[in-house]
Amino acid sequence: METINIGVIGYGYWGPNLVRNFADIPETQVIAVSDRKPQCLAKVQARYLNIQVTTNTQDLFENPKIDAIAIATPVSTHFDLALAALQAGKHVLVSKPLTETNVRTGFATD
After folding, report:
1. What does the angle CA 56 – CA 77 – CA 107 come to, to the nearest 5 degrees?
2. pTM score, two decimals?
């Protein structure tokens, strides 16, 4: 089976779980993690020596080695990041929900 190369956006609450789980699957390899907070990226570097880190999510979209993007960021960013990843030709996994909903109407706000 071919290895699936993963990029993870967000290393706050769920990101570490995603990176750990992908790292434990022989058929996947985490190539890079993006987060706006340098202290979160320092945690990645301390635990995973071979994973690239960046504060610029665009680096993951432009990386030809990355097949899929896992998004673990605040809900308000999910739609835009998922769309950008799809437009870059990446497969996408988004932590739920995909968008916020308007409490009054029940429709997505994005």
Report:
1. 165
2. 0.89
pLDDT tier for residue 59 given thresholds of 50, 70 and 90 = very high
Report whether the peptide linkage leading into residue 97 is cis, meaning its omega lies within 30 degrees of zero.
Answer: yes
User: Of the candidates 16, 73, 72, 26, which has an alpha carbon nearest to the alpha carbon of residue 48?
Assistant: 16
| Burial of 95 per CB tally in 10 Å (0-12, 13-18, 19+) | middle
C-alpha span between 15 and 35 (Å, rounded): 9
Residue 55 and residue 10: Cα distance in Å, rounded? 10
Write down the catalytic residue from 37, 65, 90, 96. 96
Residue 43 known to be catalytic: no
Rounded Cα distance, 45 and 53, in Å: 7
pLDDT digits (tens, 9 = 90+) for 8-56: 999 999 999 999 999 999 999 999 999 999 999 999 999 999 999 999 9
CB atoms within 10 A of CB 74: 10
